[in-house]
Specification:
The complex is a heterotetramer.
Chain A (H helix, E strand, L loop, with lengths): L6 H21 L3 H26 L5 H31 L13
Chain B lengths: L8 H16 L5 H29 L10 E10 L5 E8 L1 H24 L6 H19 L4 H19 L6 H32 L4 H5 L19 H16 L8 H4 L5 H10 L4 H8 L1 H7 L1 H22 L5 H22 L8 H31 L15 H15 L5 H16 L1 H26 L15 H16 L5 H4 L13 H22 L5 H9 L1 H7 L4 H47 L7 H22 L2
Antiparallel strand pairs in B: 1-2
Helix pairs in contact in B: 1-2, 1-4, 2-3, 2-4, 3-4, 3-10, 3-15, 3-19, 4-5, 5-6, 6-8, 8-11, 8-13, 10-14, 10-15, 11-14, 12-13, 13-14, 13-18, 14-15, 14-17, 14-18, 15-16, 15-17, 15-19, 16-18, 16-19, 17-18, 17-21, 18-21
Chain C lengths: L1 H22 L3 H21 L3 H26 L11 H24 L14 H9 L7 H22 L10
Helix pairs in contact in C: 1-2, 2-3
The chains are: A mainly alpha, B mainly alpha, C mainly alpha, D mainly alpha.
């Protein structure tokens, strides 16, 4: 089905998506949107895995399963992160990342 | 050789009693602790007498000259094969004589104190300290080596400190004990340096080896080592510095008058008869080394003794505190002893000064202890130390009066009492050696008679002051020691010292030299006469005389401002110009430098702590750029 | 030809919606854009013939996570609330760093020549996936499967504990 | 069972026993009993040691015992004593025993206090019996760390400042020391053979002189900080003044001796040639310590400061004597350490 699309195209998309995610992570102030940026990053990685699997090692399914596992981890991460965010919201009445700087010294 | 091992018990018994009274004393009745302490000293005294009798008479040692006998010796510290420190007991004429002096006076003081200290707080503490002091002093005189002597020397200093500061609630007593300790300790520094120089060069601490005329000390190479004097001379001068400190020689005497803050029996024991003569004993102990090895050092001893005796005698004429008068008199008399040692030669007739010095030490112990104890009885009756508060006491205190008079006559040097004989020998020795010193001593003899009788008349004659309650004679427990000592003061002069205590152990004959004895007696009588004229009845003469001498009188009254000089040197010079800068340097430079380092680190970390801002996105930014930089470096720039 | 058009379309959607996700000022809208990105990704998986994976992507990612996110958005902020964006300096710096990074990565990717494998592809039917997940032989993934299940369990418990309303606030001040 | 190991085990058992005590009284009694046993043990050790020596045993170290505990780096638990260590152990047990009584009235966090105190003591004992450089260093740190807690928690005055200063300076010393120990380790044996931390073996295989020149200052200053070597003594006055009585006693009485002992055992014993070459530098420093400490003490107003400065002076004397590197001076240093330990401890006990 992939026809004549070269591997690089997938990689370019995933790279761009990855950096867009990073940009979002660096600029969004809202913790939930930061979380969404992280999802973008994870997703771009998934695309990479799948594309490599398909093009370079079609005889087995390593990339496929890695992606599967990453999705599972992403789900777990999202659940925990949202729990934490809600907790933070309860304590700080805000989920603005700049207000949550208890991490310093 | 005759066995003298039991002499070890003489110091040990007081020590055991010290521990016994010190630990269990507060549980027993006060009087019991006093009796126990006295009993201990009694045993020690009996043993000392036995030793003396055996050594001088029954063991027939005289034929070959009195040799020193090591009664006992063990190695205490085995530092290296060459360097060991021993502890033992050495028996020779002077140590036996000192045993007699110390145990006799100490026993008398113990008996006396039973009465004198009655009702004082810390009664048992007093007796414990007395025992400790007796132990230290006996250990000092029995020392077989100079290091043991040094150890006991310091112990004596400590027990003296404790006794002077016995009334530790009185600030003046505390100050006095501190002063005594610091001044003598400072002098002991010289002693220690002297010991180190001497033993380093001779390789031994042992007295027998050191004093042997063929020993390593005397045969030590001479020659100028420093400022034109040999090493041996320097070491002996340093050792003498220790002796001068303990014996209150000029200019290290400043502690002695203040030390009178202690209880009077303590003054009698420590500051009249025993500890203060330790310096004389020290020089006498090392006398062969001084005489044969370093006559220059001996000259120093003679002059220090002479100056001290004159200096103290002048001050004594102006003081009004009776104990202080006695203290300066002690200093003056010890000056005599030092001078006698200083003018002495070694061996036979030449050693007259040595013999005279020890003789005077012996007699002086008797009459000076008597004077102090008598003063104690007076203070006990009048509750004051000042002559101005006394007068006409002869009616109230008959026994004290008689014994005090005997002591005054003795110290003034009127024959046939003890003081005359010993002082006369000193005069003779000085005459043969140095005429200037001799004339100083003549002057001092007159002054001595004058100030002693000034004291005597002021206390016992003159108009009776109004007393708060009628003074009464002390109890027998206090007067009996007075009588015993008075007996000693009268008859001690007849002891054949020239046959017993001589510089080389060989007895010699000594004769009374009338051409010297008669003028000295006359001078003494003149002094007494002057005192009688001035003080028998109160008249204006003393004030007039004081007016004539003017500044001299004022200076003498203020003890020639020696204390002020010391205070100036220590506080104004050493403290201000060395210690305070050092302390400041330590707090501000050394410590400040450490604090500076700490502050620098702190500031640096304050600067970089913003990196740890807690802002997630900043971390992320740094992370991303860092990762990019690493990729750039390792993928593109590395090759 | 068909597939290429399809790919460009998907790629365009992914990029556009990604950018919108990170720039949209309305959080709920951003979440919806994210959903579109995730669905497009699933479509790419379909294109690559990993159908099971695509299904998982749709159910777990698009279905589960995005719903979770939307819920949390609703819990913590108003719908109409506009997200505060970073200040100009931060945005610019981030864009710079991100742009440089993207450039660097793209350069690297384009410089490298990948050699596509000619081997026959392993099928990835549900059966295959199921077998591989419980197989512990070569090409079996029993261990990662177990590990991930424990992780999920832990995350489950963790999420409950963290999000629980504290009765006593002694621990978390 | 080697008698020396008991010196570490008894404090540890005491600490465990303290954990089970219910009230202050029990804690005190357990500590006193534990350290009392330690004192008796020290007496037995002195007796056994003298008996062995009198019986003609001339081995360098008696009661030698050796066990590997970290084979990868050849770190051993090597213990043994000579006369100096025996003297130090006796001193330590006396001071610690007295220290327990001096802190009889501590009531704030009393259990923790006694545990820290005894832990400190066990570190000191371990230090004195160790013959393995690494183990020795380990015990050294065990002794230094409770010090921070003891001063920081139970001290008086500016205690946090003093505790921090003391700990930081001693830790800085330890850092230097660690460099020296590692350096010694890497040159402990001829190239190709097995490296060792064992003091006796290192002394047999000479460390190359160039390395000695480099390492000796590290070792000397590292221990010198603890021995109040000028100008690294400034932790001492503040530390002593702020510390609780028992800790001042232990610190001035015993811990400062660790410096002198360490200088002798490590710096001088292992690197004699460099010591001879560089002695003059440190003789000057220790000489300054002696005079400087004495003058500094004269004008202090606080009793504890006076004693702290005098300790600087006395410990300077100890280091000075050790640097003389002859038998007599060494004997003097040991006697000085003991006398200073006893008298300073007494002084601190009294001035509290």
């Amino acid at each position: 089905m992939t026809g004549s699309i070269p591997l690089q195209y997938f990689l370019i998309i995933s790279t761009l998506m990855f950096f867009i995610g990073i940009y979002g992570f660096l600029t969004r102030k809202n913790l939930i949107t930061m979380l969404m940026s992280i999802e973008l990053i994870l997703n771009s990685v998934n695309i990479n895995f799948v594309a490599f699997n398909k093009y370079l090692y079609p005889q087995n399914l390593q990339g496929h399963f890695f992606t599967l596992i990453i999705i599972a981890i992403a789900a777990a991460e999202a659940a925990v992160a949202i729990a934490i965010i809600i907790n933070i919201y309860r304590n700080f009445r805000s989920i603005d990342v700049d207000n949550v700087d208890e991490l310093k010294f | 050789m005759v066995d003298y091992t039991y002499t070890l018990l003489i110091p040990l018994i007081p020590f055991v009693f010290f521990i016994l009274i010190g630990i269990t004393g507060h549980k027993m009745k006060p009087i019991v602790s006093g009796l126990i302490g006295t009993a201990g000293l009694g045993i020690a005294a009996i043993l000392s007498y036995i030793t003396a009798i055996r050594y001088f008479w029954t063991d027939h040692l005289a034929e070959t000259g009195y040799k020193s006998i090591k009664a006992f010796e063990v190695t205490w510290l085995h530092l290296t094969d060459k360097l060991t420190i021993n502890i033992g007991a050495l028996i020779d004429p002077i140590s036996v004589m000192m045993l007699i002096v110390i145990t006799t006076v100490s026993l008398m003081v113990h008996i006396y104190s039973i009465g004198y200290m009655k009702g004082e707080r810390g009664y048992h503490r007093f007796f414990a300290f007395l025992s400790l002091f007796s132990f230290s002093m006996l250990g000092l005189v029995l020392a077989t080596n100079i290091f043991q002597m040094y150890i006991f020397w310091e112990l004596v200093g400590v027990s003296s400190f404790l006794l002077i500061g016995f009334y530790y609630e009185k600030p003046s007593a505390v100050a006095a004990s501190k002063k005594a300790f610091i001044v003598t300790r400072f002098a002991d520094l010289g002693f220690l340096i002297g010991i180190l120089i001497l033993s380093f060069n001779t390789g031994t601490f042992d007295f027998q080896l050191l004093t042997s005329p063929t020993g390593p000390a005397i045969t030590m190479p001479g020659g100028a080592a420093f400022m034109g004097m040999s090493l041996l001379t320097w070491s002996l001068i340093f050792i003498f510095m220790g002796g001068a400190g303990k014996s209150a020689m000029f200019p290290l005497h400043v502690w002695l008058p203040d030390a009178m803050e202690g209880p009077t029996p303590v003054s009698a024991l420590i500051h009249a008869a025993t500890m203060v003569v330790a310096g004389v004993y020290l020089v006498a102990r090392l006398f062969p080394v001084y005489a044969l090895g370093a006559p220059d050092a001996l000259t120093v001893v003679a002059w220090v003794g002479g100056i001290s005796s004159l200096f103290a005698a002048i001050i004594a004429c102006t003081q009004t505190d009776i104990k202080r008068v006695l203290a300066y008199s002690t200093m003056s008399q010890i000056g005599y002893m030092m001078l006698a040692l200083g003018v002495s030669g070694y061996g036979g007739e030449n050693g007259l000064g040595f013999m005279a010095s020890n003789f005077h030490l012996f007699t002086h112990a008797m009459f000076k202890a008597l004077l102090f104890l008598g003063a104690g009885a007076i203070i006990h009756a009048v509750h004051s130390n000042d002559m101005k508060d006394m007068g006409g006491l002869r009616k109230y205190l008959p026994i004290t009066h008689i014994t005090f008079l005997i002591a005054c006559i003795t110290i003034a040097g009127i024959p046939p009492l003890a003081g005359f004989w010993s002082k006369d020998e000193i005069m003779v020795a000085a005459w043969h050696h140095n005429k200037i010193l001799f004339s100083i001593e003549y002057l001092v003899a007159g002054l001595t008679a004058f100030y002693m009788f000034r004291l005597y008349f002021s206390i016992f004659w003159g108009k009776a002051t109004h007393y708060h309650h009628t003074p009464h004679e002390a109890p027998y427990v206090m007067t009996i020691p007075l009588m015993v000592l008075a007996f000693g003061a009268v008859f001690a002069g007849f002891l054949p010292f020239h046959a017993l205590v001589t510089s080389d152990g060989m007895p010699f004959e000594s004769h009374l030299d009338y051409s010297i004895a008669i003028p000295s007696v006359l001078i003494a009588l003149f002094g007494i006469g002057l005192a009688t004229a001035m003080y028998l009845k109160s008249n204006g003469l003393p004030d007039k005389l004081a007016g004539i001498f003017g500044h001299t009188y004022k200076w003498a009254f203020h003890k020639f401002y020696m204390d002020e000089v010391y205070i100036f040197v220590t506080k104004k010079i050493i403290f201000r110009f060395i210690s305070e800068p050092v302390a400041w340097f330590d707090r501000h430079i050394v410590d400040g430098f450490m604090n500076l380092i700490a502050r620098t680190v702190q500031n640096a970390s304050n600067l970089i702590k913003d990196l740890q801002s807690g802002r997630l996105q900043q971390y992320g930014y740094v992370f991303v750029t860092g990762a990019l930089a690493l990729v750039l470096i390792f993928v593109y720039l590395w090759n | 030809m068909n597939s290429e058009v399809m790919f460009y379309l998907l790629a365009g959607m992914i990029l556009v919606f990604s950018v919108l996700t990170v720039t949209s000022r309305k959080i709920l809208r951003a979440a919806v854009y994210l959903l579109f990105v995730l669905i497009s990704t699933a479509a790419i998986y379909f294109m690559l013939e990993y159908t099971f994976l695509a299904a998982v992507q749709l159910t777990v990612y698009a279905g589960g996570i995005v719903v979770l996110i939307i819920f949390s958005v609703l819990l913590t902020s108003h719908i109409s609330e506009k997200a505060i964006m970073a200040d100009r300096k931060q945005s610019l710096l981030s864009a710079l760093a991100v742009g440089a990074g993207a450039l660097l990565t793209l350069l690297t990717i384009l410089k490298f020549t990948f050699v596509p494998s000619a081997l026959p592809a392993q099928t990835s039917t549900v059966t295959d996936v199921g077998n591989a997940l419980i197989s512990y032989e070569r090409d079996g993934f029993a261990l990662p499967f177990e590990v991930i299940s424990i992780l999920l369990l832990a995350a489950l418990i963790g999420a409950i504990i963290v999000a629980r309303k504290e009765k006593d606030n002694a621990i978390i001040k | 069972m080697n008698i020396l190991s008991l010196f570490i085990l008894i404090p540890l058992f005491t600490i465990i026993a303290i954990l089970f005590t219910g009230n202050m009284k029990q804690t005190r009694i357990v500590s006193a009993v534990g350290m009392g046993i330690q004192l008796i043990l020290a007496g037995i050790l002195v007796y056994l040691y003298l008996a062995e020596r009198n019986a003609g045993n001339t081995a360098a170290m008696l009661f030698y015992y050796d066990a590997v505990w970290f084979p990868t780096l050849n770190i051993h638990y090597t213990i043994g004593v000579d006369g100096i260590s025996v003297a130090m152990i006796a001193l330590t047990s006396i001071v610690v025993f007295a220290g327990i009584f001096a802190s009889w009235m501590v009531d704030y966090l009393y259990r923790e206090f006694f545990i820290s105190l005894i832990l400190l003591a066990s570190g000191v004992f371990g230090f004195f019996i160790s013959l393995d450089l690494f183990t020795m260093f380990l015990f050294y740190e065990v002794a230094v760390i409770p010090m921070y807690l003891l001063i920081g928690l139970w001290g008086s005055g500016p205690k946090e400042y003093s505790a921090m200063k003391l700990t930081l300076m001693l830790m800085a010393g330890s850092a230097l020391l660690f460099v020296a120990i590692l350096g010694i380790y890497f040159y402990s044996a001829p190239a190709g053979s097995h490296l060792t931390f064992n003091l006796l073996e290192i002394a047999k295989n000479h460390i190359p002189i160039e390395m000695q020149r480099f390492l000796f200052p590290f070792a000397f200053i590292g221990f010198g900080v603890l021995g109040a070597l000028f100008p690294f003594h400034t932790w001492s006055p503040d530390g002593h003044a702020s510390a609780p009585t028992a800790v001042s006693m232990l610190h001035a009485g015993v811990l400062m001796k660790l410096g002198g002992y360490g200088v002798f055992r490590v710096a001088i014993y292992l690197m004699p040639e460099a010591a001879h070459e560089q002695a003059w530098i440190f003789l000057i420093l220790t000489g300054i310590s002696v005079v400087y400490g004495a003058f500094g003490a004269v004008v202090q107003k606080d009793l504890k400061y006076i004693n702290a400065y005098s300790s600087v002076s006395h410990c300077g004397l100890v280091l000075f004597a050790i640097l003389m590197m002859n038998q007599t001076a060494m004997n003097g240093a040991v006697i000085q350490m003991i006398s200073h330990g006893l008298m300073t401890a007494l002084f601190f006990a009294l001035s509290a």
